[in-house]
Write a structure and sequence with these properties.
single chain; 229 residues; alpha/beta; Ribulose 1,5 Bisphosphate Carboxylase/Oxygenase; Rossmann fold; 4-stranded antiparallel beta sheet; 3-stranded parallel beta sheet; 8 helices; 9 strands; 31% helix; 21% strand; globular
């Protein structure tokens, strides 16, 4: 049996077992039960009433959180020379093409997001085996393959994230930091849910949002009443 740490015991004492918290209450309490010495991430776990094995019930999308995630994303723009200044001006950390493709082939993947253009996807496609497993492969569905390179870079820097349901029908996503004011967490979560609801598959039957939990890094989860979101 796993031994409870002192901090875990303190956190659990602040939680009412089996209680369904309102979003506002959970956004406030998650700060109190986060006892790490660093600015922990606040994470949302949403179980959907879908069958992710069926292609017509896959849920995947992108959303720009109004207050960002609190994380600074390192962005690589793989683009042609005429788009380089646009990407740099938008805040891309690394800009180029062939030299970065060669670096990636040699194992370099020290970035969080890669944005590229349709005309160079043939080159970028060669990196699928390296980028795919790391979740870094650009995809038109997430807005990371576009001719509007500067706009895409800017959106990522402002807090645009992509999410996808896993094989168990659960979406995991960071929605802020414990240093955020509760109202900012609430704004981010409501924006996230607006997109999840918008993406509800037409083939879905029964309850779509099965359960929602909010937690911070290493903290217990708080069960949220979906009706309060």
């Amino acid at each position: 049996m796993t031994k409870l740490t002192k901090n875990k015991k303190i956190a659990l004492e602040k939680i009412e077992q089996d209680k369904l918290y309102t979003l506002e209450d959970a956004a406030s309490l998650v700060k109190d039960i986060s006892l790490t010495k660093f600015d922990a991430s606040v994470d949302l776990n949403v179980r959907l009433g879908i069958d992710p094995r069926k292609s017509n019930q896959m849920v995947r999308g992108v959303v720009t959180l109004p207050h960002g995630t609190g994380k600074t994303f390192k962005v690589l723009a793989l683009c042609t020379p005429e788009k380089e200044e646009e990407a740099k001006a938008a805040g891309a950390d690394y800009v180029g093409l062939d030299e970065y493709i060669e670096k990636i082939k040699k194992g370099w993947t020290d970035v969080d997001v890669i944005i590229t253009m349709p005309p160079v996807m043939a080159k970028v496609g060669q990196l699928g085996r390296i980028l795919g497993p790391r979740g870094l492969m650009p995809n038109p569905k997430t807005g990371t393959v576009t001719m509007e390179v500067g706009k895409a870079v800017e959106e990522v820097k402002k807090g645009k994230i992509d999410f996808k349901v896993d094989k168990y029908g659960i979406i995991h996503s960071a929605v802020g930091k414990v240093s955020f004011e509760p109202n900012k967490l609430v704004d981010n979560i409501r924006e996230f849910f607006a997109m999840v609801n918008k993406l509800k598959p037409t083939a879905t039957k029964g309850t779509y949002i099965a359960s929602v939990y909010l937690s911070s890094t290493m903290s217990p989860g708080l069960k949220i009443d979906p009706k309060s979101i």
